[in-house]
Amino acid sequence: MGVVTDSTTEFFQELGRRGREALLEKANGSIRFDLADGSRTERWFVTLDRGDVSVSHKNAAADCVVCANRALFDGIVRGEVNGMASLLRGEMTSEGDPAFLVLFQRLLPAPAARGGRTDDVRDQR
Predict the structure, then answer these.
(1) Could you tell me if 37 and 70 are in contact, meaning their C-beta atoms sit under 8 angstroms apart?
(2) Of 21, 27, 71, 96, which residue is least crowded by CB atoms under 10 Å?
(3) How is residue 119 annotated by DSSP?
């Protein structure tokens, strides 16, 4: 059997391999993602140092901590779900400095535009 990978794991591994992100060259700090999958919580710890990005599974204090369901976060990193909208709907929570969450959003794929979605506010007008 081969190694099974998923969207979230691929996203964080690729982020760690890139190592440097010009979009974050003014950022210094850390953000931890606690992703719940049933009774298990997977943690991804991202350190930002003036554009240098490192990724690990550390369970350490961070400047910002994001808690979400693993399936929801998979949708976010695939560009199927808007992370900020999920945060505003309470499907995802954030503690600490929200500036890191806003900065991190720059690394996420933009949600794909879809017509006919029932949860799209424009469709409900």
Answers:
(1) yes
(2) 71
(3) T
Q: Is the pLDDT of residue 4 over 50?
A: no
- Sheet with 52-56, side-by-side order of all strands: 52-56, 40-49, 28-37, 64-69, 92-96
Strand partners, 55: 46
pTM as predicted: 0.82
Ordered by start, the domain boundaries in the chain are 7-124
Q: Looking at the predicted structure, is the pLDDT value of residue 69 above 50?
A: yes
**Domain at 7-124: CATH architecture:** 2-Layer Sandwich (3.30)
Nearest alpha carbon to residue 78 among 28, 11, 5, 1: 11
